Amino acid sequence: MFGVIARDQSRAVMDAMSTDPAFWEAYWAHRPAYDRGDVTAAEYWRRVGHPPLVEQDVASWAEVDDEMVALLGSLHAAGRRIALLSNIPEDHARNFEHTYPWLDLFELRAFSCRIGHAKPSPEAFEWCRDRLGGGEILFVDDRLENVRAAERAGMRGHHFTGIDGLRAVL
Questions:
Q1: Which of 19, 67, 112, 142 would be 3's cystine partner, CB 3.0–4.6 Å?
Q2: Is the pLDDT of residue 7 over 80?
């Protein structure tokens, strides 16, 4: 979701959270466990070594690309099956579900915090593939390592660099 439907983190919100490189090093080092749901928000922020910034963290990821949302709506209206695999902690997932009704367009929402696996682990892709059943699956992501992992799991991959490139493969 992030980097494709939701834009990259807001630089302004990130700077308000911290400008200390050590903060961001810890933020990213401990993020996989938080995204998988292995640790609570309180434990994650303890590991980062900072008082909890849950609201700011959620806000930093909240800007959505309306053109992508419109494309999702068009695909859904045309009868295309669409699914979502996102590395996302529970606090963020709840906020997105509460805030964005377009999430209902997805036949399957595989949030890492709820499936116990995060991209690029093979288990995340296998979990989705098993629930979607047979047929061709096009996996779209802004991170090439995730696209390659999806391809190893038998999916067709598209490295997202913009909506025009995605439209071309659809």
A1: 142
A2: no
